Amino acid sequence: MLAGFIVLMIACMFQGSFGLGMKNYRPFSWEAFWVIFSIIGILIIPIVWTWIEVPGFYQYIAATPPWILAIAAACGFLWGVSAIWYGKGIDCIGMSLTVGINTGVGCSLGSLIPLFILGNMPSSHSLAWLLVGMAVMILGVGIITRAGILKDKESRQDASRIRNPKFVSGLVMALASGFGTAAMNIGYTYASRASSLAVEDGINPVSASLIAYVIVFASGGFVSNLGYALWMLNKNNTFSDFSRRGSSFAWFKALLTGGIWFAALGLYAKSTALLGDLGPVIGWIAFLSGALIISNAWGLKTGEWQGYERPKRVMLLGNAVLVLSVVIVGYANGLS
Questions:
Q1: What is the pTM of this model?
Q2: Which end of the chain is more exposed for a tag (fewer CB within 10 A), N or C?
């Protein structure tokens, strides 16, 4: 179980860091960046990584009941739509606030629903502590969201600061993206049936866990992400971005972002296998909470809170509360 938490913490670092690539990718347009991110991070890397660890993994997908694959693909499509909002939310209101709101919705729904899907309820004592940990986590996210609102309020009251006309739309997109984040974990829980078939065939559970993500992402998730990005490229006539002068660094950033993004989820999948039966529930809470702490650290590093001392203090308090929630969830896992 200790190994599971170590892998999970590494996954948190990647998950909390990949958003840096979405902050400045000029001279690419958003849609040019997203096409590369989708092809590399959502399609190619998951398939290649899984093939390396589980050669012939497609046979386990083919043996999975079609209705399970359909639900997982539908969840992947919903996540794909939300991923678009997530990227645009970072563009509008920054990493700290987008990740905070996304985490609050995604963590609560994305962990409770799989708990009932799995049908493997922990002991009443463990469940009570798990719910306490979730409540503390939601409190921490609420405090961080409050920090963002205070920051926006201060910028509106000070004429010397640049106002953000996209603040409200960014908040809405960050909130909506949380539902898709929850859908991703729900889809992964269903798709884990294919991973279970691989385990029954003698495949290492840690490697087999990757198969579920191929189902979720390479189907509905890839279709929604790439489809929208191509539509935007055609609408804005920005196909020339790929060969624009100075675009080599944008290419590198898009490729690196896609790699880091799936590295986070691939390692999270492995951690769920190491954490035991409730890995998709407890691991999901710790994964998103830990990633939020990392993303806020990057937000401080890149100057998102510079000049906003009171909002920054509130944000740091929220992070402290999140650390407490992860400790409580870890304790609950030890009791299960």
A1: 0.76
A2: N
